[in-house]
Amino acid sequence: MLQPFEDFRPSYLPRLLQLGRRYLVSQTYHRVKEMETDPFSSRVNLLFSDYAELGEARLHLNAVKKDCYAAIVDMKNPVHLKKIQEMLLAGSGYRMFFTVVRSAKELENLVNKKYKDKLKQYVDKQTNWRISRDAIVKPTIQLSFGELFIILKHGNQHIRIKFAEIEEPL
């Protein structure tokens, strides 16, 4: 399973505040289950998304409200900030990721290369698009509420697919 996001580092906290991105939304992060090797040292994997506006953070929270780890963290609230700092410490029982990728271009290239056949299978089975064998459908990657999506375009049509659907065997 592709895991594109960066580890959340303590150095991000002051930088986010400096950029006016005071709100974080947390949610369970399922893309790292395979990374855990020792079941006795398992940690809760969390994904954090940053927002400047409380309204945006609330929209995200509403989208993941069934998640028991879904929360809005206000980094200008000293209690919230202290909790995040504690969660970032080694041995805290948490592994934290940030919805930031090192290189969006590298990620798109990886998806184009590694998932090309699965994308073609998806188009063949799930759409009525008739694409010639030599045509290339290049996906665009989009992040929405902590979930990766693939955008495929053909002519004047486009579809938005959860990336998890591409990863699953068809």
What does this structure look like?
This protein has 170 residues and is an alpha+beta fold. It folds into 2 domains: 6-98, no CATH class; 104-167, no CATH class. The protein has 6 helices and 8 strands, in the order E-H-E-E-H-E-H-E-H-H-E-E-E-H. The chain has helices at 12-18, 54-63, 78-87, 104-114, 116-126, 163-167, and strands at 6-7, 23-28, 44-51, 71-74, 94-98, 140-144, 147-154, 157-162. The strands form 2 sheets. It has a 5-stranded mixed beta sheet with strand order 1-5-3-2-4, with helices on both faces. 19% of the residues are buried. The model has no long low-confidence stretch (mean pLDDT 88).
In short:
The chain has 170 residues and is an alpha+beta fold.
Number of helices: 6
* Head-to-tail CA distance between termini: 15 Å
Q: In terms of per-residue confidence, which ranges show pLDDT below 50 for 5 or more consecutive residues?
A: none
> Largest beta sheet: what is the strand line-up?
1-5-3-2-4
What is the number of E strands?
8
Rg over CA atoms, rounded to whole Å, is 18 Å
Residue fraction in strands: 25-35%
- The helix/strand class is alpha+beta
Keywords:
alpha+beta, 3-stranded antiparallel sheet, 26% strand, 8 strands, 2 domains, 6 helices, 170 residues, 32% helix
Layout of secondary structure:
Elements: E1 6-7, H1 12-18, E2 23-28, E3 44-51, H2 54-63, E4 71-74, H3 78-87, E5 94-98, H4 104-114, H5 116-126, E6 140-144, E7 147-154, E8 157-162, H6 163-167
Parallel strand pairs: 3-5
Antiparallel strand pairs: 1-5, 2-3, 2-4, 6-7, 7-8
